[in-house]
Hints:
Elements lengths: L3 H12 L13 E6 L2 E7 L8 H9 L7 E4 L13 H8 L3 E4 L11 H8 L3 E4 L3 H7 L1 H9 L3 E9 L3 E3 L11 H12 L3 E5 H7 L12 H6 L9 E5 L18 E5 L11 E5 L2 E2 L2 E2 L1 H10 L4 E4 L3 H9 L5 E7 L8 E2 L15 E9 L2 E8 L6
Parallel strand pairs: 3-4, 4-5, 6-14, 6-15, 8-9, 8-14, 9-10, 10-11
Antiparallel strand pairs: 1-2, 1-3, 7-16, 12-13, 15-18, 17-18
Helix pairs in contact: 3-4
Amino acid sequence: MINHKKYMKKAIKLAKKGIFTTSxxxxxxxxxxxxxxxxxxxxxxxxxxxxxxxxxxKMAKKLSYQATMYVTLxxxxxxxxxxxxxxxxxxxGINNIFIAVKDPNPQVNGKSIKKLKKSGIKVHxxxxxxxxxxxxxxxxxxxxxxxxxxxxxxxxxxxxxxxTKSGESKWITSKKSRSEVHILRAQNTAILTTSNTIIxxxxxxxxxxxxxxxxxxxxxxxxxxxQPIRIIIDSKNRVKxxxxxxxxxxxxxxxxxxxxxxxxxxxxxxxxxxxxKNKINxxxxxxxxxxxxxxxxxxxxxxxxxxALLSLNMIDELIIYCAPIILGNQSKPIxxxxxxxKLSQSKKIIFRKISKIGKDLRIIINFKKTDxx
Length: 373
């Protein structure tokens, strides 16, 4: 008996290799099997390059005839930066295909499945659907809602504080945790912060390969990698060109209520957002960022802004690096949610994963609202 699940697991593992370089595209893995032997495999490596299925077919060559394909997402059926994959699959002679999950993109969404069935290929949908959907949860949300997936990264003490009373926060967590943050940044299309953070901490907010550990650095696909867009919410036009973030010439978006008259470098663009109660309308902001092909955003900011996002139910995933220190009740907390008076008003979360990073704990949390994506 063929262990179909085993081959789909391998396809999912392959798909994850594209997590740093596919940009707005989903990550996809593909395995081709003939007589219980893998004859072709591929993953989507970067936006605009060949899709996983085409790479696997090229590897299999004539052995794809009468073979079985396992793919983590429905093959594309439209012309984008590449041609439709389903045509190549049909012409290759594949006679069986296991598709983990349908592509939610309206340009696809079952169209390839119909074409493949019509050609006589036996099509099986739903093998390891939940895991395949999970690895593309950010893509699914963005396609379905138009809004980017929001990841929030926080470094805190054991008692939930992000800085001392005087504002000292460097460094709460260990070097190992800080090294991992560069991997986390690299997985997102954009990194978002506020003018408060820029003025207080003067960060660069880029991915620095030199600060990754040796193993991460060796395996990282630097040749296909593009630095994330850096977004600064600056409603009062407070940031200056002498801040470190502007020295690095990857794209920066300044989110403002009105433009200033300064001449900014070419890599800096001002985006004007209508105000809501004299502040930037965050709901509208994220909708606009979604239209700019920003699939996922890592938020790195202070408690005022993170509390605003939490109050609006806009955080999808919370990544906490918890250090084995206690800072006391005079220090700055993660969230400022003064409106919560009863347990019934509390924010419901799901502990997804807890692991040790050096001396610290990494806690990954999802919110109930995203559980069905």
